[in-house]
What does this fold into?
Amino acid sequence: MAFDELIHQPSRLRIMAFLNRLGPEAEVEFTRLSRHLELTEGNLSRHLAKLEAAGYVEVRKGFSGRRPRTWVRLTGKGRDAFRAHLRALEAIVKGEGNDDTRRSAGGRQGLRPRPRPG
Amino acid sequence: MPLPPSPEEARRYLEEAEKGAARAQEALLPYYGFWLALWGGIYAVGYTLVALDPARADAAFGVLSLLGFLASYAIGFRAARFFKTPGGRALARLWAGFALAALALVLARSRLPGPAFSLAINLLVALALWESAERIGAPGLRAAAVLFAFANALFFAYYPEGYAPFLALVGLGSAAVGLVWGIRGLR
It folds into this structure.
C-alpha cells in the first residue's frame, strides 16, 4: 500500500490524473494544462515544482516555432506512485486500509489532507 | 500524527482523480471532433454527388479527399502544439500509410467499377479506424469500425442502389457527432 501525501493534495491529484490519462511519454504544454485544470499559472507552477522535486514529473523548456513553450510530462516514477496511491485509496474505500496504509501516511510530515479549492 | 482519509474522503479523492482524467480526455476531444466532422462532411457531400451525378463525382470526391488529408494533418499539427502523445504520432503514421494504400487503389481505379472502388476504400477506412482505436484507447471507435465495415459489405452486396445514400447519411451523422464533440471540447 503506498498512500502518498504529496499526490494526495487535490490539485496535485488532478495534475497527476490528467498526465496519467494522456499516456506514457505524453507531454502537455504548460498553459494548456493550466487552462484544462482551471489552475492559475502561479498555482500550477508551485504544484509542479513540488512534483518535479519528487521526480514525479519532468518540466522541459522548448520552442514551438519561435514561441517558447514549457512542456510537462509524467515520469515512470510518477506513474507508479500515482497508481499505487489510487490503489491505496481504493483499498480504504473497500475497508481494506491496514496498518501499512496508516504507517505510510502517518510516517510523513504534514496535516491530515483536506480538500481545498484550486 | 496524520491519518489516512476515511472511506468517504477516499471516495471523494478518487472522484477527484477521475475528474482530472476526464479533463485530459476532454482536452483532446475538439481535435478528434473536428477531424470526424471534416471527414463526415466529405463523405456526406461526396456520396451525395455519387448518388446524384456519378459521372462527375469521381473528380470532386478526389479533390475533397485531398483537401481532407491536408486539413487532417493541419488539425494534427495544431494538436501537437499543445499535446505531444505517442498515440498522436502513431495516428499520423497510420493515416499516412492509409493515404498511400488509398493512392495505390486510385492508380488501379480504371479496373475497379465505382461501387467496388468505394467498398475497397471504405474497408481500408474501417481498418484504419480500428487501428486508430487501438492507438488512442477508444473502444467505441473500434466498435464503429466493425459496424462500418459490415454495413459497407452488406449494402454493397444486397442493396447496391442504397449504398451511396447510406454512406452519405453515415457522413452526415459523423459530421454532426464530430461537431458536437468539437464544440463541447472547446467550452
User: Anything to note?
Assistant: The mean pLDDT of chain B is 89. The longest helix of chain B spans residues 7-52.
